[in-house]
Amino acid sequence: MSADAGVNTRLAHVGHDPFSYHGFVNPPVVHASTVLFPDCRTMETRAQKYTYGTRGTPTTDALCEALDELEGSAGTIVVPSGLAAISVPFLAFLSAGDHALIVDSVYAPCRLFCNTMLRRLGVEIEYCDPEIGGGIESLMRPNTRLVHTEAPGSNTMEMQDIRAISEAAHRHGCVVTMDNTWATPLYFRPLDFGADISIHATTKYPSGHSDIIMGSVSANAKYWPQLHDAAITMGICGSPDDSYQILRGLRTMGVRLEHHQKSALEIARWLESRDDVARVLHPALPSFPGHEIWKRDFKGASGVFSFVLKVDDAGRFSKKAHALLDTLALFGLGYSWGGYESLAVPVNLSDRTIRKAPLDGPVIRLQIGLEDVADLKKDLEAGFAAAAAI
Ligand SMILES: *Cc1c(COP(=O)(O)O)cnc(C)c1O
Fold this sequence. Notes:
Layout: H1 7-13, H2 40-45, H3 58-71, E1 75-79, H4 84-93, E2 99-103, H5 108-120, E3 124-128, E4 144-150, H6 162-171, E5 175-179, H7 184-187, E6 197-201, E7 215-219, H8 224-234, H9 240-272, E8 277-281, H10 291-297, E9 304-309, H11 319-327, E10 332-333, E11 343-346, E12 363-367, H12 373-388
Parallel strand pairs: 2-3, 2-4, 4-5, 5-6, 10-11
Antiparallel strand pairs: 1-7, 6-7, 8-9, 9-12, 11-12
Helix pairs in contact: 1-9, 3-9, 4-8, 11-12
The structure holds pyridoxal-5'-phosphate (PLP).
The site of pyridoxal-5'-phosphate has 14 residues, from loops.
GO biological process, one term: transsulfuration
Pfam families: Cys_Met_Meta_PP
Enzyme class: lyase
């Protein structure tokens, strides 16, 4: 494959050399704990590629190699969930007495992990404004060791200047991690912008079908050995069946994302034109505060965004918001995203310490699936009518 091959070409060919396994275009699913060695010397020196099931198989390698190619990383580990793809690198790089800076609009379960286990282990956790950019330098302490970003932020979609944050963090010897689940490596490559670690809930777009829980962590050359050691030390590994399915999902991720992107933007623009919507939080809309950063750094937008409903009963349990959501038939009420089907969620921002819930109305997050836009609009239209009737 030539170095300048297009993204869909790369997705069709990354990760497995058919002639490494009899010409089959897909890798074998290798179920394994034990791997045999031909003799004692090979065993004692571990002088062969595979040594034990937790340390990789041809199936997990095929996926990790595909992700390395897409992320431009030196090495990738696969882990049993997207949340583990956050907790494992944090445990790899943080020690008691260290200070970590986390963007306030972070994926909520990451905050729970930080506030409970990491604090219990003696790590100082501080949340920062996601739009702080290079100003993060003022929060650096002698013991700051890790900066965690997620762009756009969960639910409220704040864009982050990853290059400016990384440069400031690196001046203080910090590792920069980024949760890149929303953009996927097709629309943003964190390592190209200075981040050291790119994290994915491959549960989302790489899976694409709402039936797999898996995560990946990709590191640059500097941090790969420490990340890899942590996964081995902790006994964290991805299953062969899930790895196979995620690699299968990657083949169509480019065409799926194009559809998610186009439909989501069409619906976002339509929502923005409505009188019963206060604001639409979508980085590709020129009205969105982080739009310039998105336009400068990202190659596209996926299918998840939020909007603020204009209501006279703002707050978490707005009756109008509930009426809207309860009326939806194509949009299911469910967590996660990245699958083929549309979803809606009433957003709970009560854990925020800096980027608090907007005061102008309840926030509703949408995942725009692969359905036809006209049908999705009709569904939302019925929801808005139900809200108006309250
Ligand atoms: C869903 C999600 C995760 C966690 O993924 P799971 O596989 O559900 O544990 C992590 N980060 C972001 C941004 C997510 O949306």
